[in-house]
Design a protein that fits this description.
This protein is an alpha/beta fold. Helices cover 39% and strands 17% of the residues. The chain has helices at 6-10, 30-41, 56-64, 77-84, 98-115, 138-151, 198-209, 227-238, 250-263, 273-284, 306-310; strands spanning 21-25, 45-51, 68-72, 89-92, 119-121, 156-157, 159-161, 164-165, 176-177, 182-186, 193-196, 217-219, 223-225, 243-248. A six-stranded parallel sheet has the order 3-2-1-4-5-6, sandwiched between helices. α2 (30-41) crosses α7 (198-209). The radius of gyration is 20 Å and the shape is globular. The model is unreliable at 1-14 (pLDDT under 50).
């Protein structure tokens, strides 16, 4: 594996390093489970905080990956602080809206400070919301608000920004349209877009969790491609001609977002269709573009390219 080893992070290669402890919130989720596995591969003791009452099957899945599930009442600040005691870093992979990103994650932050945990990795994992416009993207606004809170806390924090999950190109993201052999885009066909697979994000996050000198922001992209690049790639992979298809300019996309949001019923879902459209707008405008990239920081070289993600669709 190309990621940094436990000995590399500690600066010792004599095999006598005691296992280190990382606290992980969100280990029962998709990305959280991958982060758990990546930490275990590095010989780390992972304390996986789960809500009290989490089903036994979910806790067994955590154990199956090598972690130790720690049921805790996230509303009980003292119990939460006790659960974090002795960890060198808290990694949050929590997913949701304001009650989760600001509420639950905020309580996790306060408990980490109370427990004397030196470092915190918030659940950002997104395009570069530090450069986007407030009000344009609900979920990025929540991350921006939490960033202000964590920056005011007496703890060292690192946010990992990874663009869009490349895995979505073969599923939920309405970009690659096999039926029509088209690449759907808004605005400029040559706008570079950042994509990183969930496994690569998890691998990198594990290295960051063990890096006491990690900076406040780290930006990674497993691959950077434009809509035109994607059309050329799919043409080569499939042997039939693919074309970029311009659905409209960014102004039209903004109008459609307003309409979709107005017509959508109120929901606690973190990613309704209009939210995905907001994310696409931030990518297509270039405002969420990641630069500079920090993908070489830990010596990882096996980044998954977009071609490897799309190749199975042949």
């Amino acid at each position: 594996m190309a990621g940094m080893t436990l000995e590399d992070v500690n600066g010792h290669g004599d095999g006598g390093v005691a296992p280190r402890t990382i606290a992980l919130a969100g280990a029962t989720g998709d990305l959280g489970g991958r982060v758990l596995s990546a930490l275990i591969r590095r010989g780390v003791d992972v304390r996986a905080l789960v809500r009290s009452g989490t089903p036994a099957a979910a806790q067994d899945a955590v154990r199956g990956r090598g972690g130790t599930p720690v049921p805790v009442d996230f509303a009980d600040q003292a119990a939460l602080s006790d659960a974090l005691a002795g960890a060198e870093c808290v990694v949050s992979v929590l997913n949701g809206l304001e009650p989760v990103i600001l509420g639950l994650q905020g309580r996790l932050l306060d408990a980490a400070v109370a427990a004397g945990v030196p470092r915190f990795i918030p659940s950002d994992f997104s395009l570069d919301f530090t450069k986007t416009r407030p009000g344009d993207n609900r979920n990025m606004d929540l991350r921006r608000r939490f960033m202000a809170r964590v920056d005011a806390a007496p703890i060292r924090a690192t946010s990992i920004l990874n663009g869009a999950f490349a895995d979505l190109l073969t599923g939920e993201a309405p970009i690659v349209l096999p039926r029509f052999a088209r690449i759907l885009y808004w605005g400029d066909a040559d706008q570079p877009l950042d994509f990183t697979t969930k496994d690569d994000v998890a691998d990198y996050t594990a290295d960051v969790a063990l890096d006491a000198d990690a900076p406040r922001l780290l930006r990674i992209a497993g691959d950077v491609v434009s809509p035109r690049d994607l059309a050329i790639l799919m043409t080569r992979l499939e042997g039939r001609r693919w074309k970029p298809f311009r659905a409209g300019g960014l102004g039209r996309l903004s109008m459609l977002i307003r309409v979709a949001r107005t017509l959508s019923p109120t929901s606690d879902a973190p990613f309704p269709a209009w939210q995905g459209m907001q994310y696409v707008r931030d990518m297509s405008s270039g405002r969420g573009k990641l630069s500079p990239l920090d993908k070489d920081r830990y010596g990882k070289t096996d980044w998954t390219r977009v071609e490897a993600v799309l190749a199975p669709t042949r």
